[in-house]
Amino acid sequence: MNPLAAPLPPLGPPVAVDDGPPFDRDAALRLDNQLCFALYSASLAMTKVYRPLLTELGLTYPQYLAMLLLWERDGLGVGELGERLFLDSATLTPLLKRLEQAGLIARSRDTADERRVIVSLTDAGRALRERAHPLPPAILEATGCGLAELAELKARLEALRKRLQAAGG
To answer: Which segments of the protein form a coiled coil according to its record (predicted)?
Structure first.
C-alpha cells in the first residue's frame, strides 16, 4: 500500500510515528509544519537568488539547468534531457525552442533514428559556459553554508526524491 495514500489515524490520543515525537493531527495540518512548504519556499528563495545572475546570461532557471546538462554532455537526445531534468515534453519543447531562438542550441534529427531529436550546443552556447562560471560561487556564498554541509543537504534531498518517486510521486 502506498504510505502517502494511507488513511489518517482515527481521532484520539496522538500516535507515535517511528521513534519520533507523537503524531499530532492538528499540528500536522499547520503550514509551517509541512515539509512540502519548506521545500517549496526554499526553492523559491533559491530561484530568487539565481534570477539576477541568470538575467545577465539571458537565461531562465530551467534554461540554465538544460544548459548545465548540455555543457556536461553535448548532443543529448530530447528524451534524455527531459529524463535528467524531470521535465515532460510539453514543458521541455518550448524551453528548447527559446534556447534555439537565442542561438544557444541547435536541434536536429538523429541520422541513425529519425524519431530521435538531438540537442547540440552552438558556438554561442559553448561560449556562454565561461560567463556562467561565477554563478556557483555566488550561490554558495548566498547559502551561507560550507561545501560539506551543502553536499550533505544535496545527498539527503536526492535520497528523499528517490523515496518519493518510489512511493509513486
So the answer is: none
Q: Write out pLDDT tens, residues 42-98.
A: 999 999 999 999 999 999 999 999 999 999 999 999 999 999 999 998 999 999 999
pLDDT digits (tens, 9 = 90+) for 15-58: 455 667 778 888 999 999 999 999 999 999 999 999 999 999 99
CA dihedral 76, 78, 84, 88 (to 10 degrees): 180
Is 158 part of any domain? no
Backbone angles phi, psi at 77, to 5 degrees: -80, 155
Domain count of the fold of the chain: 1
Residue 114 lies in a domain: yes
Give domain status of residue 16, yes or no.
no
Distances (CA, A) of 61 to 13, 28, 31: 46, 32, 26
Q: Is residue 92 part of a domain?
A: yes
Whichever domain contains 85, its CATH number is 1.10.10.10
Residue 104, domain extent: 60-152
